[in-house]
């Protein structure tokens, strides 16, 4: 698995995940939308930790500096 995410991309994903989690835990996002937001937040955190996004490989995108 080759890294395809740069630092800026990882930071943006972590910030979005924190926002989704905050909206969920404050009760702003509830029900199905809240669960979907938490799943997306989890995926964003996971892909940021491993520096690899499977969708980027499908589209041939890499934000990692060479």
Structure in words:
By secondary structure, this protein is an all-alpha fold. It has one domain. Helix 1 packs antiparallel against helix 2. This is DUF2892 domain-containing protein. It comes from Flectobacillus longus.
Q: Helicity range of the residues? A: 55-70%
Strand content: under 5%
User: Strand pairing plus helix content: what structural class?
Assistant: mainly alpha
Number of domains: 1
Instruction: Please write the string of helix (H) and strand (E) elements.
Output: HHH
Mean pLDDT: 94
Question: What are the SSEs and their pairings?
Answer:
Layout: H1 7-25, H2 31-50, H3 54-59
What key phrases describe this protein's structure?
3 helices, mainly alpha, transmembrane, single chain, 66 residues
Describe the structure concisely for a colleague.
The chain has 66 residues and is mostly helical.
